[in-house]
């Protein structure tokens, strides 16, 4: 598989709040290619309430779009999936033909804004019990969840896979999302970084290169490969992904907004730093 792999995008034309036209979608693919993306999963929003008609519409539009991409001579490997809005009947929706990503077992989900449902863990357990591998999209952007990093950690320990957005790492969704994304990254919690591209300007594919540079700066080359290539490629091949570890940040690497060292101290010191970070998040 050549190039990077992006498992979260809204470049399927005129089906959701992403690209409104074939013209823009083709232009978006050109940008994705320029960012080194060789394989792309199109993940339009799919709400259980939309029903199977909407899902069918996505498949028809995908066939038309692939034809347009071929005719335009754009060489990119395209797959179809969905970004499923969290609900308690997720296994039913995941079983729809595009309810899972690229015909595999991975399922991209996102949470509604507002309080985190007390039934969240049970709902993901049911999805896993049905044989799927659920991915939580951009938890750093969820206001309530970003205040509870310990809950993100607990979900991760229950095998919920974590995808963060390239734009979050670059501050495009505000300071809280950026801080949370960096914390998640440095703890080794994310399994994927995706563009979540919606258009050419506000939420474009063109953030991917800069996000890779930021990951390189914070965590090193191996993590860039794991998050932008190796793990997303496993979504396409339906293989086991590689979970992360806390980043062995170089002592010479300056922190962007504070100068605390992340690693190299005693376990006690690291525990104290971790608690301090969570407290700072919770105070906001
Ligand atoms: Fe999305």
Q: Compute the CA-based radius of gyration.
A: 18 Å
Percentage of residues assigned to helices: 40-55%
Give the low-confidence spans: 250-255, 257-284
The CATH homologous superfamily: Metal-dependent hydrolases
Secondary structure elements and pairings:
Layout: E1 4-6, H1 22-34, E2 37-42, E3 45-46, H2 51-71, E4 77-80, E5 83-85, H3 90-94, E6 106-110, H4 120-129, E7 133-137, H5 143-146, H6 149-157, E8 161-165, H7 166-169, H8 175-186, E9 192-194, H9 208-219, H10 221-237, H11 267-283
Parallel strand pairs: 1-2, 2-4, 3-5, 5-6, 6-7, 7-8, 8-9
Fe (ii) ion binds at residues 8, 10, 83, 137, 196.
Task: Explain this structure.
With 284 residues, the protein is of the alpha/beta class. It has one domain (4-251): Metal-dependent hydrolases (TIM Barrel, Alpha-Beta Barrel), CATH 3.20.20.140. It has helices at 22-34, 51-71, 90-94, 120-129, 143-146, 149-157, 166-169, 175-186, 208-219, 221-237, 267-283, and strands spanning 4-6, 37-42, 45-46, 77-80, 83-85, 106-110, 133-137, 161-165, 192-194. Helix 9 (208-219) packs across helix 10. 42% of the residues are buried. Residues 8, 10, 83, 137, 196 line the site of fe (ii) ion.
């Amino acid at each position: 598989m050549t190039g990077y792999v992006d498992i979260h995008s809204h470049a399927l034309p005129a089906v959701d709040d992403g690209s409104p036209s074939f013209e823009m979608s083709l232009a978006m693919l050109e940008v994705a290619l320029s960012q080194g993306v060789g394989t792309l999963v199109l993940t339009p929003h799919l709400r259980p309430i939309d029903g199977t008609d909407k899902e069918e519409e996505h498949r028809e539009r995908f066939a038309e779009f692939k034809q347009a991409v071929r005719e335009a001579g754009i060489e990119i490997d395209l797959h179809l999936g969905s970004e499923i809005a969290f609900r308690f009947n997720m296994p039913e929706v995941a079983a729809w033909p595009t309810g899972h990503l690229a015909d595999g077992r991975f399922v991209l989900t996102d949470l509604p804004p507002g309080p985190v449902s007390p039934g969240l863990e049970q709902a993901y357990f049911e999805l896993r019990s049905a044989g799927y591998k659920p991915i939580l999209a951009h938890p750093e952007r969820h206001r309530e969840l970003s205040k509870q990093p310990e809950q993100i950690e607990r979900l991760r320990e229950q095998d919920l896979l974590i995808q963060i957005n390239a734009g979050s790492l670059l501050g495009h969704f505000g300071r809280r999302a950026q801080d949370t994304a960096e914390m998640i990254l440095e703890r080794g919690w994310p399994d994927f970084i995706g563009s979540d591209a919606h258009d050419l300007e506000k939420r474009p594919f063109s953030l991917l290169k800069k996000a890779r540079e930021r990951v390189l700066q914070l965590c090193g080359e191996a993590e860039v490969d794991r998050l932008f290539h190796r793990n997303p490629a496993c979504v396409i091949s339906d293989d086991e992904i590689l979970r992360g570890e806390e980043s062995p940040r170089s002592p010479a690497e300056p922190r962007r907004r504070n100068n605390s060292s992340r690693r190299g101290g005693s376990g006690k010191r690291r525990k104290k730093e971790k608690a301090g970070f969570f407290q700072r998040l919770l105070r906001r």
